[in-house]
Amino acid sequence: MTGAPVTPASTPTVPLAGRDVARVGYGAMQLTHGGHVAPETAVALLRQAAGSGVNHIDTAWFYGAGSCNALIREALAPYPENLVVATKLGADNTADGGLVPAQRPEELRRQVEANLASLGVERLDVVYLRRLDFAPGIIAEGEQKVDLDDQLAELSALREAGKIRSIALSNVDAGQLRQALPVGIEAVQNVYNLLNRGTEPVLEACREHGVAWIPYFPLGSAFSGQRKVTEDATVLAVARELGATPSQVGLAWLLAHYARTLLIPGTASADHLTENLAAADVELGPDAMARLDASAG
User: Fold this and answer.
1) Where is each NADP-dependent oxidoreductase domain found (predicted)?
2) What would the pLDDT profile of 5-24 be if each residue is shown by its tens digit?
3) Residue of 63, 79, 128, 216 marked catalytic
4) d(Cα 185, Cα 197) in Å, to the nearest integer?
5) Helix, strand counts (H, E) of the chain
6) Distance from C-alpha of 235 to C-alpha of 82, rounded to nearest angstrom
7) For 38-54, how does the pLDDT look when each residue is reduced to its tens digit (9 = 90+)?
8) In the chain, what are the domains?
9) What angle do CA 155, 158, 160 make, to 5 degrees?
10) pLDDT band at residue 224, thresholds of 50, 70 and 90?
């Protein structure tokens, strides 16, 4: 390969909620999803992440009806000053472990209070409003189809009251992002990866306005019917050439794609956590980037 390398390490941190956070963080959903991770294993994994320099953790009250937040609290409280814990609103748990929409302003307020209590904090660092207008995930219907401005007004009031620091959006289109910008939007979390670039217009809007971009399902997901980035022929070839893993190549491509990208790959494996964090040091040269960019989106 020729030319200067594209190195994510050249921008090792991104501002988020008033702190500079490492560009590879940790998504905690897998710690409670499916119920297959023992609590002591989850706590050890969170402490390993923090000890490895992770200072951005993504969670939600509806990850196990507060149980994921409880694990984060057990593992990391009292929280380091540089740690950002981001959470999401917009859904609630059912008795059988499923999810239902919870989009109404009064429901958002209750979820903020539940997050505060379960995390054991007085103010939430980043709160994502998870819209349910389109897949992946459940879709809002009937009285759960709530006007975005009404939701933003409630979150703005909660921010004014000191209960949240920063407002963010998840699962939105570019028009919704632009509609919300006057309120002050910290970040956007949408599905996006090398092989699924359907929300590219939202990423472009983030670039235009300097909003942090947090792609979820960064390596695809068989669970959601997406192709797995780690099985793509180009990714496999680049990984062999660089002596990296396919996961690291897929994550490095995202980091090199926009300087304000933050990653929150989730895992229940200590080895995979170490592998994911090392993606921040993978350098993709111009030739590799061009080949990856040309992969089917």
Assistant:
1) 24-294
2) 556 656 789 999 999 999 99
3) 63
4) 22
5) 10, 11
6) 34
7) 999 999 999 999 999 99
8) 19-231+259-272 (3.20.20.100)
9) 110
10) low
